[in-house]
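Predict the holo structure. Ligand: zinc ion.
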Amino acid sequence: MAHPLTVPDSLKHLTVQKGYPVPYFVAYPTKDEQGQPAADFRYADPLKLVNSIRGDKCFVCGKPLAKDRYLIAGPEGLKNRIHTDMPMHEACARFSLTTCPHLVYERADRRTSNEVATQQIEGQALQKPGEFYLVRLFNYGFILDGGAVYINFQPSAVERWHYVDGRLVADGQGWQRRPDFLQWMRPAMVPRNHLIAKLKRLYL
Ligand SMILES: [Zn+2]
Protein backbone atom coordinates (compact mmCIF):
# COMPACT_ATOMS: atom_id res chain seq x y z
CA MET A 1 0.00 0.00 0.00
CA ALA A 2 1.39 3.41 -0.89
CA HIS A 3 1.60 5.94 1.91
CA PRO A 4 2.42 9.38 0.58
CA LEU A 5 3.12 10.60 4.08
CA THR A 6 4.07 14.14 4.90
CA VAL A 7 5.92 13.87 8.18
CA PRO A 8 5.99 17.18 10.08
CA ASP A 9 9.40 18.51 11.15
CA SER A 10 8.49 17.82 14.78
CA LEU A 11 8.38 14.07 14.02
CA LYS A 12 11.29 13.73 11.61
CA HIS A 13 13.56 12.42 14.39
CA LEU A 14 11.45 9.27 14.75
CA THR A 15 12.53 5.97 13.21
CA VAL A 16 10.55 5.04 10.12
CA GLN A 17 9.34 1.48 9.79
CA LYS A 18 7.17 0.16 6.97
CA GLY A 19 6.68 3.72 5.80
CA TYR A 20 5.43 5.04 9.13
CA PRO A 21 7.27 7.05 11.78
CA VAL A 22 7.37 4.90 14.93
CA PRO A 23 5.82 6.80 17.86
CA TYR A 24 8.01 7.30 20.91
CA PHE A 25 5.99 4.97 23.17
CA VAL A 26 6.22 1.93 20.90
CA ALA A 27 8.03 -1.19 22.08
CA TYR A 28 10.45 -3.22 19.97
CA PRO A 29 9.69 -6.71 21.26
CA THR A 30 10.95 -8.75 18.29
CA LYS A 31 13.54 -8.65 15.51
CA ASP A 32 12.94 -8.40 11.78
CA GLU A 33 14.49 -10.61 9.07
CA GLN A 34 17.69 -8.55 9.19
CA GLY A 35 17.97 -9.01 12.94
CA GLN A 36 17.03 -5.41 13.62
CA PRO A 37 14.60 -4.55 16.44
CA ALA A 38 11.06 -4.51 15.06
CA ALA A 39 8.49 -2.09 16.41
CA ASP A 40 5.13 -3.42 17.45
CA PHE A 41 2.77 -0.46 17.41
CA ARG A 42 0.35 -2.26 19.72
CA TYR A 43 2.75 -2.33 22.65
CA ALA A 44 3.93 0.44 24.91
CA ASP A 45 7.50 0.11 26.16
CA PRO A 46 7.37 0.27 29.99
CA LEU A 47 10.61 2.27 30.13
CA LYS A 48 9.20 4.84 27.72
CA LEU A 49 5.99 4.95 29.70
CA VAL A 50 7.96 5.76 32.85
CA ASN A 51 10.11 8.29 30.97
CA SER A 52 7.12 10.02 29.46
CA ILE A 53 5.53 10.43 32.89
CA ARG A 54 8.73 11.39 34.67
CA GLY A 55 9.92 13.77 31.97
CA ASP A 56 6.44 15.10 31.14
CA LYS A 57 6.97 14.04 27.54
CA CYS A 58 4.63 13.57 24.61
CA PHE A 59 3.73 9.93 24.01
CA VAL A 60 4.11 10.31 20.23
CA CYS A 61 7.21 12.46 19.67
CA GLY A 62 8.92 11.99 23.07
CA LYS A 63 9.60 15.72 23.43
CA PRO A 64 8.49 17.83 26.41
CA LEU A 65 4.79 18.57 26.45
CA ALA A 66 3.44 22.06 26.00
CA LYS A 67 0.88 23.71 28.27
CA ASP A 68 -2.02 22.44 26.18
CA ARG A 69 -2.20 18.64 26.13
CA TYR A 70 -4.28 16.29 24.05
CA LEU A 71 -5.32 12.71 23.69
CA ILE A 72 -7.42 10.62 21.34
CA ALA A 73 -10.34 8.87 23.01
CA GLY A 74 -13.21 6.69 21.89
CA PRO A 75 -16.75 7.40 23.09
CA GLU A 76 -16.39 5.00 26.05
CA GLY A 77 -13.13 6.59 27.15
CA LEU A 78 -14.66 10.03 26.88
CA LYS A 79 -17.62 8.88 28.95
CA ASN A 80 -15.63 7.25 31.74
CA ARG A 81 -12.67 9.66 31.45
CA ILE A 82 -10.16 6.85 31.52
CA HIS A 83 -7.35 6.49 29.02
CA THR A 84 -4.37 4.17 28.57
CA ASP A 85 -2.14 6.38 26.42
CA MET A 86 -0.31 9.34 27.84
CA PRO A 87 -0.97 12.92 26.66
CA MET A 88 0.51 14.39 23.51
CA HIS A 89 0.95 17.60 21.53
CA GLU A 90 -1.96 18.71 19.36
CA ALA A 91 0.14 18.32 16.20
CA CYS A 92 1.15 14.79 17.24
CA ALA A 93 -2.46 13.84 17.96
CA ARG A 94 -3.62 15.23 14.61
CA PHE A 95 -0.83 13.39 12.83
CA SER A 96 -1.99 10.15 14.51
CA LEU A 97 -5.63 10.76 13.58
CA THR A 98 -4.72 11.25 9.95
CA THR A 99 -1.91 8.69 9.70
CA CYS A 100 -2.15 5.79 12.16
CA PRO A 101 -3.73 2.95 10.13
CA HIS A 102 -5.58 1.59 13.17
CA LEU A 103 -7.36 4.91 13.44
CA VAL A 104 -7.57 6.04 9.83
CA TYR A 105 -9.13 2.95 8.33
CA GLU A 106 -12.45 1.80 9.70
CA ARG A 107 -11.71 -1.82 8.86
CA ALA A 108 -8.21 -1.96 10.37
CA ASP A 109 -8.00 -4.10 13.49
CA ARG A 110 -7.99 -2.39 16.80
CA ARG A 111 -5.66 -3.63 19.47
CA THR A 112 -7.47 -5.42 22.24
CA SER A 113 -6.82 -4.59 25.86
CA ASN A 114 -5.11 -7.92 26.57
CA GLU A 115 -2.62 -7.24 23.80
CA VAL A 116 -1.40 -4.09 25.49
CA ALA A 117 1.69 -5.11 27.37
CA THR A 118 1.28 -3.19 30.56
CA GLN A 119 -2.22 -1.94 30.48
CA GLN A 120 -5.58 -3.56 30.80
CA ILE A 121 -8.75 -1.78 31.66
CA GLU A 122 -11.84 -3.51 32.80
CA GLY A 123 -14.74 -2.55 30.61
CA GLN A 124 -12.62 -1.01 27.87
CA ALA A 125 -14.45 -1.25 24.59
CA LEU A 126 -12.90 -4.02 22.52
CA GLN A 127 -14.98 -3.26 19.47
CA LYS A 128 -13.58 -0.45 17.40
CA PRO A 129 -15.82 2.55 17.84
CA GLY A 130 -17.32 4.40 14.90
CA GLU A 131 -15.97 7.70 16.14
CA PHE A 132 -13.02 9.12 18.00
CA TYR A 133 -12.49 12.37 19.86
CA LEU A 134 -9.50 14.63 19.86
CA VAL A 135 -9.60 15.75 23.48
CA ARG A 136 -8.07 18.95 24.74
CA LEU A 137 -7.27 18.28 28.37
CA PHE A 138 -8.26 20.64 31.14
CA ASN A 139 -6.71 18.41 33.78
CA TYR A 140 -5.63 14.86 34.34
CA GLY A 141 -4.03 12.57 36.88
CA PHE A 142 -2.64 9.07 37.05
CA ILE A 143 -4.32 5.96 38.36
CA LEU A 144 -2.41 2.80 39.14
CA ASP A 145 -4.43 -0.41 39.16
CA GLY A 146 -2.22 -3.41 39.83
CA GLY A 147 0.45 -3.12 37.16
CA ALA A 148 -1.65 -0.98 34.87
CA VAL A 149 -1.29 2.77 34.72
CA TYR A 150 -3.84 4.97 33.12
CA ILE A 151 -4.96 8.53 33.27
CA ASN A 152 -8.18 9.99 34.50
CA PHE A 153 -8.87 13.13 32.56
CA GLN A 154 -11.15 16.11 32.46
CA PRO A 155 -11.66 17.52 28.96
CA SER A 156 -11.90 21.20 28.23
CA ALA A 157 -13.16 20.60 24.68
CA VAL A 158 -13.37 17.85 22.10
CA GLU A 159 -13.27 17.61 18.33
CA ARG A 160 -15.25 14.69 16.97
CA TRP A 161 -13.88 12.49 14.19
CA HIS A 162 -15.92 9.82 12.45
CA TYR A 163 -15.71 7.42 9.52
CA VAL A 164 -16.87 8.54 6.11
CA ASP A 165 -16.45 5.96 3.35
CA GLY A 166 -14.22 3.93 5.67
CA ARG A 167 -11.82 6.77 6.49
CA LEU A 168 -11.56 8.80 9.65
CA VAL A 169 -12.28 12.50 9.16
CA ALA A 170 -13.15 15.42 11.44
CA ASP A 171 -16.89 16.00 11.59
CA GLY A 172 -16.44 19.68 10.72
CA GLN A 173 -18.05 21.00 13.91
CA GLY A 174 -14.75 22.15 15.38
CA TRP A 175 -14.10 22.25 19.12
CA GLN A 176 -17.14 21.45 21.25
CA ARG A 177 -17.69 21.87 24.96
CA ARG A 178 -20.22 19.93 27.00
CA PRO A 179 -21.60 20.68 30.47
CA ASP A 180 -20.54 17.26 31.79
CA PHE A 181 -16.89 18.12 31.09
CA LEU A 182 -17.02 20.24 34.24
CA GLN A 183 -17.45 17.16 36.40
CA TRP A 184 -14.27 15.69 37.82
CA MET A 185 -14.96 12.00 37.67
CA ARG A 186 -12.42 10.25 39.90
CA PRO A 187 -10.43 12.56 42.12
CA ALA A 188 -8.42 9.73 43.81
CA MET A 189 -5.14 9.57 41.96
CA VAL A 190 -1.55 8.57 42.55
CA PRO A 191 1.06 11.33 42.93
CA ARG A 192 3.49 11.29 40.02
CA ASN A 193 6.54 10.40 42.17
CA HIS A 194 4.79 7.42 43.77
CA LEU A 195 3.65 6.24 40.39
CA ILE A 196 7.14 6.41 38.87
CA ALA A 197 8.66 4.57 41.85
CA LYS A 198 6.02 1.83 41.61
CA LEU A 199 6.40 1.44 37.85
CA LYS A 200 10.16 1.20 38.15
CA ARG A 201 9.79 -1.60 40.69
CA LEU A 202 7.32 -3.39 38.46
CA TYR A 203 8.98 -3.07 35.07
CA LEU A 204 12.55 -1.83 35.15
ZN1 LIG B 1 4.52 15.35 20.45
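Helices lie at 46-54, 75-80, 90-99, 101-104, 192-203. Residues 58, 60-61, 63, 88-89, 92 surround zinc ion (CB under 6 Å).
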